Amino acid sequence: MREKLKQVIYVSERTDLSEDSLTNIFDTSHKNNPEKGITGCLLIGSNSYLQFLEGPNLRVEELYSKIKLDSRHKNVKQLHDQSVEEKLFSSWSMKFAPFNNLEWSNQEFDSGNFLNIEPEGAINVFHSINEVMNG
Length: 135
Ligand SMILES: Cc1cc2nc3c(=O)[nH]c(=O)nc-3n(C[C@H](O)[C@H](O)[C@H](O)COP(=O)(O)O)c2cc1C
Fold this sequence. Notes:
By secondary structure, the chain is of the alpha+beta class. The chain has a single domain, classed as Alpha-Beta Plaits, CATH 3.30.70.100. Helices cover 37% and strands 30% of the residues. It contains four helices and five strands; from the N terminus they run E-H-E-E-H-E-E-H-H. 27% of the residues are buried. It binds flavin mononucleotide.
């Protein structure tokens, strides 16, 4: 039987705004995610992160537990948790998308503040990104 897949979206407040911390998260994600079958997209706002994680159930839960404990952000709030049959971002081990550099960007997010985003808005953002990127 095929492994069950799930998607998680959370928003969090950045505590470390340095480039070094982003580079480190980028390197770690690209090292770890492929071997775990995890894919997704991390939106980097001025004060916040909005991350979409997907992959095999247990792998996503494991990673999300680690991420919640990471001191480079705080107030991690889960917006979405769903079992799915297919991935949305199957070819991205973790797409890093700075908020000021997004083709899909709109006024609501131009400030790079994702903290007040509603679950439905967050889901829509990732679906739009997927459409823009994959045509
Ligand atoms: C906003 C944010 C997103 C992250 N995304 C990932 C990720 O997609 N994959 C990953 O392995 N670690 C990610 N991390 C890092 C984890 O919290 C943790 O430091 C890392 O998984 C530990 O990896 P290691 O066990 O190989 O040292 C993220 C951290 C933050 C703050």
